[in-house]
Amino acid sequence: RCESLVEVHFQLHQQVMAASAKLGAEVLPRLLERFNEVLSSLVKSSFLVEKQPPQVLKTQTKFQASVRFLLGPQLLKASAKPYMVRADMVTEKQARELALSAYSNTLSESTGEIMHNVVALETNPTSGTCCANFKNVLLKKIKRCERKGSESVTEEKCAVLFSTTVALTPGNLSVHLQVLSLPIVVIVHGNQDNNAKATVLWDSAFSEIDRVPFVVAERVPWEKMCDTLNLKFMAEVQTTKGLLKEHYFFLAQKIFNDHSTSLEDFQSRSVSWAQFNKEILPGRGFTFWQWFDGVLDLTKRCLKSYWSDRLIVGFISKQYVCKLLSTEPDGTFLLRFS
């Protein structure tokens, strides 16, 4: 699609040049300038991240990523030396400034130190693609931002900015290409992993597609949260058996610390980020997400087949279990997530 748009652009350009005498000295330069703007805009939007870096990224750990320039095979002439693509870490504030300037200004300083962060943009003749593959990038260290209030380091989002400058044929128009990765939470120790995953999950599930980087709602409808927990559960455990109505009821009672309500009462409620992974559950030493993440891990490692055969209720309260079992014959038992 991008390539055929460029073809249309060049045809129009040729027609304008053919009619240049008739257009006159006033109209022609204006049209040509507009042509350059349109081409530049099209070219910039065809530079994209094909393989995203991991969204939870540990320092001193190698990772991979790749960017692709859709119009590369068509517009880049075989220059003597290949164009190089750089990868830099940027803060949320820097990402926002770049986005608001429509990626027209360049990065002033990188927010972390990345090793092996410059790679050639290469065209593959067999697949007809133009890519820069970052195969063993390593984030050496990260400069943390000023944090707001009680914000922890695992709530801080950054991104990788990929950038290069290319000269296009014909016309030798020079265009600066930049594209941001999805938001990344940088950790320095494995024990930060599940809090980092919470930030990424909340961002992936509840952010708008066209947004200022990396704004996301502070509260979301409980129904949306149910969908997210269900998708996450099925993906992590690798099962086709998702969560059921009664499971949601139990989860709602847990996250809202409300045991008196009926299932319908929770439908219209909204849940906050703090309830999800900031506030410690009453009488416990962990948040709702930390508990749910533990359940995911346990089910994935030990209980996958039992869950998939619907042999585990799992998400059920102690009180309700006692009530259910009181009428059953001795020896009847239920498995529940404590």
Short synopsis of the structure:
This protein is α+β, with helices and mostly antiparallel strands and 338 residues long. The protein is built from eleven helices and 13 strands. The strands form four sheets. Strands 1, 3, 5, 7 and 8 form a five-stranded antiparallel β-sheet that branches. It has a four-stranded antiparallel β-sheet with strand order 6-4-9-10. A two-stranded parallel ribbon has the order 2-11.
Helix-strand sequence: HHEEEHEHEEEEEEEHEHHHEHHH
Q: Give the uncertain stretches in residue-range form.
A: none
Structural class: alpha+beta
According to CATH, the homologous superfamily of the largest domain is STAT transcription factor, DNA-binding domain
- The CATH architecture of the largest domain would be Sandwich
> How does the overall form come out from the CA principal axes?
elongated
Count of alpha and pi helical runs: 11
CATH domain class name of the largest domain = Mainly Beta
The pLDDT mean sits at 91
List how many beta strands DSSP finds.
13
Rg computed from alpha carbons, rounded to a whole number of angstroms: 26 Å
First and last CA, distance: 53 Å
Structure write-up:
- It is a single chain.
- This protein is α+β, with helices and mostly antiparallel strands.
- It folds into two domains: 43-188, Sandwich (Immunoglobulin-like), CATH 2.60.40.630; 219-326, Orthogonal Bundle (Recoverin, domain 1).
- The protein is 41% helix and 22% strand.
- It contains eleven helices and 13 strands.
- The protein has helices at 2-18, 20-45, 72-75, 92-100, 193-206, 222-237, 245-256, 263-267, 273-277, 288-308, 318-325, and strands spanning 47-51, 56-58, 62-69, 84-91, 112-115, 118-120, 122-124, 129-142, 158-168, 173-180, 185-187, 219-221, 270-272.
- Strands 1, 3, 5, 7 and 8 form a five-stranded antiparallel beta sheet that branches.
- Helix 1 packs antiparallel against helix 2 (20-45).
- The longest helix is centred in the N-terminal third of the chain and has 26 residues, at 20-45.
- The protein starts with a helix and ends in a 13-residue tail after the last helix.
- The model has no long low-confidence stretch (mean pLDDT 91).
- Keywords: Activator, Cytoplasm, DNA-binding, Nucleus, Phosphoprotein, SH2 domain, Transcription, Transcription regulation.
- GO terms for molecular function: DNA-binding transcription activator activity, RNA polymerase II-specific; RNA polymerase II transcription regulatory region sequence-specific DNA binding.
- Belongs to the transcription factor STAT family.
- Its main location: cytoplasm.
- Residues 51-187 form the STAT transcription factor DNA-binding domain.
